[in-house]
Amino acid sequence: MVATTTLPAPEATDRRPEDADAPGSVACCSLSAGPISAAQAQRAAGMLKALADPMRLRLLSHVAAQGCDAVCSCDLTEELGISQPTVSHHMKKLVEAGLLTREQRGRWAHYTVVPAAFAELGRMLELG
């Protein structure tokens, strides 16, 4: 059986372009920063591809929940119920995409979020 997803109906806050000047209206969907370059698109695509995996999103959320503190990969296996090789594989993809940094401390790798990468994605995706 194939799983299906039902999308919610448009909300009352969704407006047509001609309603853009109405109080409480939402602007039409234009990118605040304008079109992106080929290099920006390549970088963003790499980050978004890394984020497109549910397990990577979960791993990233655990690291991001610690703020600026590094998270040991040893703490992620039990927390998420996955093996160390699986953690290492997914974390490598997040590091390669520039979303996390990795620091080796003895036997274990420690990861921290790269705030600038998320700021870059946020600016690119911001609608205004």
TrEMBL record:
Keyword entries, A-Z: DNA-binding, Transcription, Transcription regulation
Domain HTH arsR-type: 36-128
Alphabetical list of CDD domains matching this protein: HTH_ARSR
Region (Disordered): 1-24
InterPro entries membership: ArsR-like_HTH, ArsR_HTH, HTH_ArsR_DNA-bd_dom, HTH_MetalResp_TranReg, WH-like_DNA-bd_sf, WH_DNA-bd_sf
Any Pfam family matching the protein: HTH_5
Listed PANTHER family: ARSENICAL RESISTANCE OPERON REPRESSOR, TRANSCRIPTIONAL REGULATOR, ARSR FAMILY
Protein name per UniProt: Metalloregulator ArsR/SmtB family transcription factor
